[in-house]
Structures are given as structure tokens and as C-alpha cells.
């Protein structure tokens, strides 16, 4: 989620289908015009056969300054990173 006041947040879920514990985090890349911004959650461990939710939020002055452009024609690409 990206807000006009420059605050952003990421919330994601990871399911570990293995027996051993694994770590994961989410990363999101925003792109608009020639600008980009990348944000990520911290790492979280998911024990075997367990689902975990992780979230992170912060302020980004570039997101606030360019929010109209981001809302009009920006794109977001979010991925889970496991390992």
C-alpha cells in the first residue's frame, strides 16, 4: 500500500511446506517515470509446515513528492524471497 502522505506498507504471508525452518521476506519495487523506489520487510523464520505473516511500514519522501505520478501511471512489483 502506498499513501499520498509518503507512508508505505507491505504485508505478506509465507507458507513453509517443508519440515525444516526457512526464512523469508517480501520486497516491492515501485516504478514511475524514470524513478524507482524499493522497500522490503525484514526476514522472518517460518518453522516447518507453518504459515507466518510479516509486515513493514515507513515514510518515503520521494513517494510523497511524486504520489500523483505514481497513482496515475506507476507500477509495483512485489516478490517473496525465500532462503
Your description of this structure?
The structure is a single chain. With 83 residues, this protein is mostly beta strands. The protein is 14% helix and 58% strand. Strands 2, 3, 4 and 6 form a four-stranded antiparallel β-sheet that branches. It has a two-stranded antiparallel sheet with strand order 1-5. The chain is elongated and about 45 Å long.
What are the key terms here?
single chain; 83 residues; mainly beta; 4-stranded antiparallel beta sheet; two-stranded antiparallel ribbon; 2 helices; 14% helix; 58% strand; elongated
Short description:
The chain is mainly beta.
For the largest beta-sheet, the strand count, sense and barrel status come to: 4 strands, antiparallel
How many alpha or pi helices? 2
Instruction: Report how far apart the termini are.
Output: 25 Å
What proportion of the residues form beta strands (DSSP E)? over 45%
Secondary structure category: mainly beta
